[in-house]
């Protein structure tokens, strides 16, 4: 097989998929931690917050542990139930410079 074959492209694509999956998992974990932190600061149990958001307690538990990605409408319900503002924005990505 030559050096210009599809294998090198496959490695890059595989690495890009890995990076994207890592970023998504990290975002889910961070979101879950934010929900957990706000819920506990308010003194709510998972069952209480789940009831306020029309979720089940297991669904909320999965979200807090980073195992679920909520929809925008669910994020809005969570924000209301947590007496918080929902802020979704796009910001320019930080660029890195190489020397």
Summarize the structure.
By secondary structure, this protein is an all-alpha fold. It has one domain (10-81): 434 Repressor (Amino-terminal Domain), CATH 1.10.260.40.
Structural class: mainly alpha
Q: What share of the residues lie within helices?
A: 55-70%
Sheet with the most strands, sense and barrel status:
none
The figure for the number of domains is 1
Q: How many H/I helices? A: 4
Rg of Cα set: 19 Å
The CATH architecture is Orthogonal Bundle
Q: In CATH, what is the class?
A: Mainly Alpha
**First CA to last CA: what distance?**
33 Å
Write the layout of secondary structure elements.
Blueprint (H helix, E strand, L loop, with lengths): L5 H36 L4 H7 L4 H8 L7 H10 L18
Helix pairs in contact: 2-3
Task: Give short descriptive properties of this protein.
99 residues, mainly alpha, 434 Repressor (Amino-terminal Domain), 4 helices
